[in-house]
C-alpha cells in the first residue's frame, strides 16, 4: 500500500511504488505545495498529524484510464488546506476521508476534465470546534459523474459548515451530479449546509439532499424499547452513520467513535 505521512507542513515519510509520483515546492505565499500524480491503478493512504497550525496546498492528478482509492486520515491540531483534483478521461477516484481534528477549514476543487471521469467522495468527521468545508465540482467533459457525501457529528463546542457546489456548462451532456450532506447535531451550536447545483444543460441528472438534526427519534425509540439505554442507543446510531461507506478504514473510525462514546 502506498502511504504518505504528513506532520504539520511537511512530508515526514513516504512509501510509494512506481504508479505514483510526488513533488513538493512552495508557492508565492511560502505555503508548502504537495503535488501527487497517479499514473496507474493504485491505493494511497494520506495520514496527517498537526501539532500546530497546518497550511498546505495539495494537487492530485489522476491520469487517463486510472482507478485510484485514497484513504485519508487527519489527527489533532488546526488545519487550513486547499485541494485541487484533476481527473482525466475514464479515470475513477474514490476518496474515503476521516477527520478527527481540533479545527479545520478545507477548500476542495474537483476538475473532471476527461469524458467518463468519475469521483466518489466520502467525508466522516466528529466536530469538537469550528469546521468549514467548501467543495466545488466542475464537470468539464461529457458523461462525467460526481457523488459527494459529507457526514458530520457535532459534540462539545463543535459546529460544521458544508458548502457544496456542482457545475455543468451548456453542451456538457450526460453528466450525473449527486450530493448528500447530513449533520447530527448533539449540541445547540449553529450548523449550515448549502447545496448548490449550477446546471446549464438539460441532459443531466442532478440531485442533492441536506439534513441537520439530532439522532433519529424513531431509531432511538426502537433501540430503547428493546432494553438499550439512551447512551448505548446513541452510540449505535452514530456508529452506523459514521461507518457507512468507509470501506477499508472502518476500524480507524470505530476507534475514534469509541473514544468519545465509551
Quick rundown:
This protein is mostly beta strands and 262 residues long. Helices cover 13% and strands 58% of the residues.
Topology of this structure?
Blueprint (H helix, E strand, L loop, with lengths): L1 E6 L2 E6 L4 E7 L5 E7 L3 E8 L3 E10 L4 E9 L2 E10 L4 E9 L2 E10 L5 E10 L2 E10 L5 E10 L4 E10 L6 E11 L6 E8 L4 E10 L3 H8 L5 H14 L6 H11 L2
Parallel strand pairs: 1-5, 4-6, 5-7, 6-8, 7-9, 8-10, 9-11, 10-12, 11-13, 12-14, 13-15, 14-16, 15-17
Antiparallel strand pairs: 1-2, 3-4
Average pLDDT works out at 93
SSE string, helices as H and strands as E: EEEEEEEEEEEEEEEEEHHH
Question: Within the largest sheet, what's the order of strands?
Answer: 2-1-5-7-9-11-13-15-17
- How much strand? over 45%
Shape: globular
Helical proportion? 10-25%
Low-confidence stretches: none
SSE-based structural type: mainly beta
Note the quaternary state here.
Answer: single chain
Number of strands: 17
Provide a count of the helices: 3
Radius of gyration: 19 Å
Q: Note the main sheet.
A: 9 strands, mixed
End-to-end span in angstroms? Answer: 32 Å
